[in-house]
Amino acid sequence: MRIGVVTFPGSLDERDARAAVRACGGEAVELWHADASVDGVDAVVLPGGFSHGDYLRTGAIAHRAPVMTAVTAFAEAGGPVLGICNGFQVLCEAGLLPGALLRNEGLRFVCRDVPLTVVATDTAWTRAFTVGQTLIVPAKHGEGRYHADEATLDHLEAEDRVVVRYAAGRNPNGSARDIAGITNERRNVVGVMPHPEHAVDDALIGGVDGRGFFQSVLGTLDPTGA
Amino acid sequence: MPRVAIDVLLKREILDPEGRAVADALPGLGYAGVDDVRVGKHLELDVDADGDALDERVESMCRDFLTNPVIESYRWRVIDEHERADA
């Protein structure tokens, strides 16, 4: 299975995302922001970083990149798309996911492992988990405070579209209703603020809880991460 | 060519931690009696259009790209040379 990882100018985590894809048994395909197509891949990852220097708003300029026209068409056709951190911001700016990511409530850049609670497992990217499972995944962001109006938040919860929440009392950025990740109506597009691609190799920084995201889409359902 | 100034702020119901930090700092600097600080963006641009066409172009740019209506609100106006904020 070929998974495309898009690099925008200012992306940081595309190499780790590609390594995570390979570590979980997929073939990683490099996509560039100026590409006109997604090269026939089976899934797309928009990685973390600071595309276009976060100028104007996070993700605002990246979502106008030529490749995003192809990613949007791919997503609308049901193709699995995962946005991580800046990728989540890009998906919100592109309107593929509702809401927006704002400056952290405490103004501090957050860089630490955070415990997440899995809420929805019927998405393209979370099938390998079980509801209620706790994941330890690194977060590193200055603008990760998820915001949507109350009606949208109610709608997301009513449709079970909150995918992961920060564990109770461990919300690092003031996100509404502890939301760390959401999905679209069709459940093929997922945005998540912490970084599962950094938690796939026990020998590196410890922990493999991020593997499940990639294993879910790859269909290699191995919740042990072995 | 008209020069357009656009002011952008987070919507009133959205927490602005930067504004709050500024408000918290002011009393310590001797500036008492200041409250409800909001920090936003001021954009200026020359736009090659007039009248209704100018209105449409600016509104369209603001809605589509320069602001995010999910989180921000904005006001814009045509300014004279002496009103430029970059003096």
What does this structure look like?
The complex is a heterodimer of chains A (226) and B (87). By secondary structure, chain A is α/β, with parallel strands linked by helices. Chain A has helices at residues 14-23, 66-76, 86-93, 150-158, 211-218; strands at 2-7, 27-32, 43-46, 81-84, 100-102, 110-118, 134-141, 145-147, 162-166, 179-183, 189-192. In chain A, strands 2-1-3-4-11-10-9-6-7 form a nine-stranded mixed sheet, with helices on both faces. The longest helix of chain A has 11 residues, at 66-76. The model of chain A is unreliable at 221-226 (pLDDT under 50). Chain B has 87 residues and is an alpha+beta fold. Chain B has helices at 17-25, 51-66; strands spanning 3-10, 41-46, 72-79. Chain B has a three-stranded antiparallel sheet with strand order 2-1-3, with no helix packed on it. Chain B is flat, with a radius of gyration of 16 Å. The interface between A and B is medium-sized, with 19 and 11 residues.
What is the radius of gyration of chain A computed over CA atoms, rounded to a whole number of angstroms?
16 Å
* H/E element sequence of chain A: EHEEHEHEEEEHEEEH
What is the average of the pLDDT values of chain B? 97
Q: What structural class is derived from the secondary structure elements of chain A? A: alpha/beta
What is the gist of this entry?
The complex is a heterodimer of chains A (226) and B (87). Chain A is α/β, with parallel strands linked by helices and 226 residues long.
